[in-house]
Amino acid sequence: MSVSPRRLRAGALALATLAIISTTACTAGGGGGNANGGAATTLTVNTSFVLKTLDPGRVYEATGLTAVHALYDTLVTFEGSDVGTPVPALAESYEASADATTFTFKLRSGVTFSDGSPLTADDVVFSLNRLKNIKGSPAVTVSELSVSKTDDSTVVVTSATPNPNVPVVLAMPSTGVINAKVAQENGAKDGEDAAQGDTAQQYLDTNSIGSGPYVLKSYDPSAQVVLEANPNYWGDKPQFDRVVLRNMDVQTQKLTMQRAEAAEISLDISGKLLDGLPESLQTSGVQDTVYFLFLNADPAVSAVTSNAKFNQALRAAIDYQGIAALYGEGAAPGAGLVAPAFPGTLPEGEASTRDVAKAKALLAEAGLDNPTVTFNYPAITYKGVDLGTVATKVQGDAAEAGITLELNPQPLTTFLDEMRGGKSPLGFTPQSLNYPVADSLINNMAPGQATALRSGWTVQRADPAVVAAGEQVTETLDLAARATAMQEWQRLMNQSSPYIVLASNSSTVVATADLTGADYSAAGWQVDVAAVGRR
Amino acid sequence: MTMIAPDPVAGDPKVDRALTRRRWLGRLRGGPTSRPVWRQPIAAAALTILGGWLLVALFAPLIAPYDPLAQSADGYASPSAAHWFGTDSLGRDILSRVIYGARLSIPLALAIVSLALLIGGLLGLVAGYVGRFADEALMRLTDLVFAFPQIILAMAVTAAFGPNTRNAVLALVIVSWPVYARVIRSAVLSMRGDDYLSAARLLGVGPVRALRRDVLPNSIGPAIVLATLELGNAVLLLAALSFLGLGPRPPAAEWGSMVALGSQDLSMWWVSVFPGLAILTVVMAFNVLGDALRDRLDPRYAKGR
User: Fold this and answer.
1) Within a domain: residue B227?
2) Can you list the pairs that B108-111 forms with residues at least 24 positions away whose Cβ atoms lie under 8 Å?
3) At what angle do helices B216-243 and B150-161 cross, to 10 degrees?
4) Does any domain span residue A116?
5) A327 burial via Cβ count (<10 Å: 0-12, 13-18, 19+)
6) Are the Cβ atoms of A406 and B276 closer than 8 angstroms?
7) Residues A272, B265: C-beta atoms closer than 8 Å
8) How close does chain B come to A389, measured CA to CA in Å?
């Protein structure tokens, strides 16, 4: 290779000045340019696409959920930002049996699909059976459910175990009802063997066969998805005739929103990125993500992190308020594992607090002099927050109490491998719920459960009171009482579990000032585009 | 006959070494027709900048106003009297971190280049002097390394061994030694048939001594120039690895990772601009110095003076 010093120098200069130039380049760069003004009835939704399919039976990714929620109706749904009370949709009413195993849904009459054909109980049964039997990613939410019809307007859903949250599950976009006849013509199956036999995904990616307020106009998973108002919609017509979901990275979204005048929404600007947006924009967010540390309870992995006194010392060493400030607007210091968006979250005022003196005293009690622990975390930015920055803050806080954390940023896959293998002495991860029911936390994080075992937290190593409190939650069938039991469980978890909740953080819908109903929902679909209107 | 006459005091190792050193170091001071490197204004400026950075690196604890790792509640403070370069998201003083960053970047760059020069130089000498199979094998090995873009190969190596300072240095040595091997080899090849080597052999000088006494001094010049140029490149590559999260582990104050931190939110321009400027000045200085040295040592590049 000939080493041309001139070329070397040119390359060197170019690279080194990149940091400086990019600062100016970014502020000078043009935005996406919005089609407002003339096309007043188009709503533009900018988001960084996470989109694999629009097949309700397979949809699992954020962008897909936003679209599918607008294309397909579910038996019940949620309004606005609320995720606690299911409201009627295709079902005009429902009844639950006292043992929370049988749920009877009375279907609304006069509902038609977008092609004009009537929606019947058969379509509901077909759709739910297909969801369960094609065993796609969302099937896990309905694996314990079975469905049947008693007459053309009545559907009965039964759960194998008592579960008062069945209606919440049936509000999820993946339970959207598809036109069984058209679906079957295009390869859809609902039988036990549907996992192999169903070939409808390709058709459902480019055609919508639901009864929702919108129909699918075009689908390009790398660029944009266009929805148009369903002329045969049974409910109130949405105010926008067209909705365009545009794929856009988050920095461009910020620039676009800074210039947007009307009918524009962004879904990914959150945390510190919200700083510097014009005052005229409106934001809506709900804290639906918690960020927590996990300490390994297995002495074979770490004699330090498995020490109960060390666990408590680290809890006391962390500056929870300071960490919440790092997340920016819409974040709160950590309290319990259930994020504030969901029923069962700890009430305000129970956030964890810092006490360095107590941390030092606990370390002394533990007999640990300058304990050193490797601290794994994924080197990623999640919902606008660089996890490395938070980890460094934790490291600085711990250092003040005499705990040395050796930061070990890892590629996401390496981090997940080590976490799943139960090898991480101390780790840091965000957690969002797949659907707005916190019970899954107990199924995963209570002692001896799958996630807990990754931290070496077996039933034998756990405080029996925590185990009992978890069982109490799953045995409580009344939803209000269940939420209270969940709070009690979290208080006990905060005393001795391997999890230290650092902060909770919000996703944010940013909308132009002229819009109404642009509320963030933690139910999965982020924003109900059909509910968005103009002032 | 005079050509094969041995040095008057040949055999005395002290005199030997002194003569050897003069043969190539002497060129740095320049011949009668040109000025020494440090009399050229641009090179002098580069030397001054590098000297300044060396002092900063040496006396960092005395110069830095704050502990580079100390966090404060004063996050994202813009440059002010208290914090000349502002603070980052965790309230760490950027000036102090830039100063401490010199303690990582400059010594590590020196280590990378020295190791690469040592390994590449040795292999180049062997390849050029021994020739035949050794030459073929070693040169195909360098081809193999050259086949990959430097940064990609370095990334692969660090990612495989795990990101930390030692592995980043190792990776950069692995990707940069072949240049020196090539340069030294070609210099050796060009002198392989020279009379004085033949003469030395006739006088019974063994290959090791010939390499050390005759071949190395006559071929090291271009490699030294290259090393100076590569110092800048090493600083840059190290910063690039670090920018990608493959360099020294956080919270170490490293320029590349500081630029990366700032790039998350460019409205806080000071977080990435100052470490970026540090990289820029060091890399430019090394490059200018390397250019000047090359002009000095290689007549083919010399500008008419």
Assistant:
1) yes
2) B108/B165, B108/B168, B108/B169, B108/B234, B108/B238, B109/B231, B109/B234, B109/B235, B109/B238, B110/B231, B111/B169
3) 70
4) yes
5) buried
6) no
7) yes
8) 7
Q: Are residues A326 and A386 located together in one domain of the fold? A: yes
Task: Please give the average per-residue pLDDT across A94-115, as a whole number.
Answer: 94
* CATH code (residue B300): 1.10.3720.10
pLDDT in tens, chain B (305 residues): 344 444 444 455 555 555 554 455 555 554 444 566 667 888 899 999 999 999 999 999 999 999 999 998 888 899 999 999 999 989 999 999 999 999 999 999 999 999 999 999 999 988 988 888 989 999 999 999 999 999 999 999 988 888 889 999 999 999 999 999 999 999 888 887 788 888 888 888 888 888 888 888 888 888 888 898 899 999 999 999 999 888 898 899 999 999 998 887 778 899 999 999 999 999 999 999 988 888 877 666 555 44
A:B CB pairs within 8 Å: 113
Instruction: Show which of residues 297-336 on chain A sit within 8 Å of chain B, judged by CB atoms.
Output: 322, 325-326
Query: Domain range holding B128?
Result: 37-70+80-304
Asked if pLDDT for residue A271 goes beyond 70, the answer is yes
Count of other CB atoms within 10 angstroms of residue A427 = 26
Nearest CA in chain A to B281: A16
Instruction: Count the helix, strand and coil residues of chain A and give each as a percent rounded to the nearest 5.
Output: 35, 20, 45
Mutant choice from A2, A7, A8 vs B, greatest count of B C-beta within 10 A? A8
Look up the ipTM and state it: 0.76
Whether residues A9 and B146 touch (CB distance < 8 A) is answered with no
pLDDT of residue A280: 93
Q: Does the beta-carbon distance from B276 to A19 stay under 8 Å?
A: yes
For residue A164, give its domain range. 9-269+508-534
Q: Is A3 on the interface with B (CB under 8 A)?
A: yes
Give this prediction's pTM: 0.79
In chain A, how many domains are there?
A: 2
Q: Which two tokens stand for residue A434?
A: 């797949």
Helix, strand, or coil here: A240?
Answer: coil
| B5 domain residue, yes or no | no
Residue of A12, A273, A408 lying closest to B249 (CB–CB):
A408
Answer for the pair B87, B66: CB distance below 8 angstroms, yes or no. Answer: no
CA pair distance A438, A487, nearest whole angstrom: 11
Measured between beta carbons, the chain B residues lying within 8 angstroms of A26 are 266
pLDDT in tens, A380-403: 888 878 899 999 999 999 999 999
- Domain assignment present for residue B153? The answer is yes
A28 interfacial to chain B (CB closer than 8 Å): no
